[in-house]
Amino acid sequence: MTVARFPGEGAVHFERQPVPALEPGLVRVRAELVGLCGSDKRLLKDGARFVPGHEIVARVTDTGTTTADFTPGDRVLVYIPLFCGQCRACLRQDTNRCLHLDSLVGWHADGGFREFLDLPPRNLIPVPDDVPSDVAVLALDTVGTAGHGLRMARRGLTDDPDHVVVVGCGPLGVGAAAVSTHLFGCRVLAGDLSATRLAAAAEVGAEPMPDDLPGNAHPLVIEASGSEAGRRLAWELVEPGGVLLLLGEGATDLSFPMGPRWRRTDMTMVRSFYFPLHEVDDNWALLRSIGANLARTLCVRTDFADLEQTYRTFGSGEQLKPLVRIPTSKNGDPR
């Protein structure tokens, strides 16, 4: 099978590997479509020990010795937290909160930029027949992560908000804007330094954040940039009693100045991670309502052979949400 390696320094290398024997208890899938998100951007420069790719649509090819309810040809999503299935969080299906979680597919175990992956059947999510693959992949980070964070945020609000502010309009921010509009039926104000990203947010119903937006006045503020400046702005905008939802990932530690604003802030701060398996049906329902428009707005299909260039254009902001097609290689070379 063909595998993409990220050695760092801006390079992607393809190599051929033998397909290993399928271990008992695992299901083999063939990756078909892999989406990129903001957390992927650093990999081209920094390199990766494992094969990247964590937003994966795949087909089951071999169920081995498992009794899992899958058959070859089934279309699935890969649920990336390799949860234990036995701790108290897993037993209540809060699988993203597994008390023994230490590995994520595509980060600490090989991901989708290889033809075959062997995974526990509990990490495979069946894709409904009526959901196309380029929409289904959004059920993971773009809508799954945003939807879970907003459900948590909703529990911290006294009432549903009359408006929501989104700081940062990458794929996750645009997903959060679309989910907010659907869940709350309210105005969404979106801010980003990129005109392209603001245009994408507008396509899902968001309005541009005005430059003179007042601080201390907004019931729900979503920070989706991961930048220090974005976090500071989001914190300054949230009103007393409001909710600050931190979705973005960044390279700097989270900190706030210990001045009067901090001391006099009464709010709920929510940090969420991915989504639990018990929310899967809710995520499919969201996608049936907003997924087609999100896919049109964000996604562009690219080829596995062009992976290095895809990462470059994605990192520069030319593409919002590349979806990389993983073909069945012939003659040992995806190109």
Provide structural commentary.
The structure is a single chain. By secondary structure, the chain is α/β, with parallel strands linked by helices. About 30% of the residues lie in helices and about 25% in strands. Helix 8 links the parallel strand 12 and strand 13. Helix 4 crosses helix 5. The protein is globular, with a radius of gyration of 20 Å. About 45% of the residues are buried.
The proportion of strand residues reads 15-25%
Uncertain parts: 331-335
Query: Termini, distance in Å?
Result: 13 Å
Using the alpha-carbon principal axes, give the shape.
Answer: globular
What's the pLDDT, averaged over the residues? 94
Biggest sheet architecture: 7 strands, mixed
Query: What's the order of the H and E elements?
Result: EEEHEEHEEHHEHEHEEHEHEHEHE
Q: Helical residue percent?
A: 25-40%
Q: Total strand count, please?
A: 15
By DSSP (H or I, 4+ residues per run), the number of helices equals 10
Class of secondary structure makeup: alpha/beta
Assembly context of the chains: single chain
Q: What is the rounded Rg?
A: 20 Å
